[in-house]
Design brief:
Blueprint (H helix, E strand, L loop, with lengths): L1 H7 L4 H4 L1 H13 L2 H8 L3 H15 L4 E4 L2 E4 L1 H30 L2 E7 L1 H18 L3 E7 L2 H9 L5 E5 L7 E9 L1 E5 L1 H10 L6 H4 L1 E5 L4 H12 L6 E5 L2 H10 L3 E5 L4 H6 L3 E2 L9 E8 L6 H11 L1
Parallel strand pairs: 3-4, 3-5, 8-9, 8-10
Antiparallel strand pairs: 1-2, 5-12, 6-12, 7-10, 7-11
Helix pairs in contact: 3-4, 3-5, 3-6, 4-5
């Protein structure tokens, strides 16, 4: 009961007298004040005084003294059980921190869309992981919008996104530009010409395949349509870029895709880029993090890596 009353006291005996618990713990292990004093590199009277102070503060007897040494009382055994576990936990924490420092152990949480993850992030990660094998990587596949929200809440370390509008809040490292284009198979375009001989407006006649409305790329293309007074008549919405590319290769319509992700198909002629009177302006993509976020050692290593 005396110990429980002590723990409930406002103020903090623990904070002010942690060294007394350390001395008590050593005496309990050695069962000898003289041996404890040698291990602690302090005088025997100093050890005895510390134990007496602790007993006075707790209002209990912790040791039974004899010529052979000391033995814990019942209250002393109860206290030792807790102090032993506490100091063991502290030692484990110190060992873990030392291991982290020695091996460069860490954790990095990255957010990216499925498309950017596949075509841009994975090549970076392959080399980064090779150089930093002890850093754990967690990838959260989600839209750019949700990645930026998570970065604002500091629940992600860094994101691979299109350049944020709010440049003041985010630090951005550009990987370069990407170009949105419209593509289709040669057969689809030939059949479309046969079917719609009198029309050259592909957006009014073709099946236009776009990403879903919540996608940042789709919003960018919607703005392009609005600025150029383009109104597609037939829209097919797809959830991700990979499916969009596959649907285009299957000949289901004209797909809006990122040019850099279909270069092999364009080179082989599997897909044909449709010329536009007004091309879609290129967008920047890159790694970004919130300027108010804490930069862990893992983050600093990753930032140095992408800058190099």
């Amino acid at each position: 009961m005396a110990i429980e009353k002590f723990v409930r006291k406002e103020g903090s005996f623990l904070n002010q007298n942690l060294s007394l618990y350390h001395i008590f713990n050593c005496v309990a292990e050695k069962e000898n004040i003289s041996h404890a004093a040698k291990q602690l590199y302090i005088s025997q009277p100093a050890v005895s005084k510390a134990i007496s102070s602790l007993e006075d503060n707790l209002n209990v007897i912790l040791f039974i003294r004899s010529s052979r040494g000391v033995k814990l009382t019942e209250e002393g055994r109860l206290l030792y059980e807790h102090t032993r576990n506490a100091f063991h936990t502290i030692q484990q924490a110190e060992d873990s921190i030392q291991k982290i420092n020695e091996l460069g152990i860490g954790h990095l949480k990255i957010g990216a869309s499925t498309t950017l993850c596949k075509y841009l992030l994975l090549p970076y990660l392959k080399e980064f992981v090779r150089q930093n094998p002890h850093i754990k990587i967690t990838i959260e596949s989600q839209s750019t919008y949700h990645t930026l929200k998570r970065l604002e809440k500091n629940t992600l370390d860094i994101g691979l996104v299109a350049k944020p509008d709010n440049e003041k809040a985010f630090q951005f490292y550009s990987l370069g530009g990407i170009e949105d284009i419209f593509v289709a198979t040669p057969d689809y375009l030939d059949n479309l010409k046969l079917r719609e001989q009198d029309s050259e407006d592909i957006f009014s006649t073709a099946n236009i395949m776009l990403l879903d409305p919540e996608n940042v790329t789709r919003k960018y293309i919607n703005q392009y349509f609005l600025e150029n007074e383009i109104e597609p008549n037939h829209i097919l919405e797809v959830t991700n870029m990979d499916l969009l590319i596959e649907f285009a290769k299957t000949g289901l319509g004209v797909a809006c895709v990122i040019k850099e992700f279909v270069l092999p198909e364009l080179e082989t002629g599997t897909l044909i880029q449709i010329p536009l009177k007004i091309p879609v302006h290129k967008r920047e993509v890159g790694f970004t993090y919130h300027k108010n976020s804490f930069l862990s050692d893992s983050m600093k290593k990753f930032i140095d890596f992408i800058q190099d």
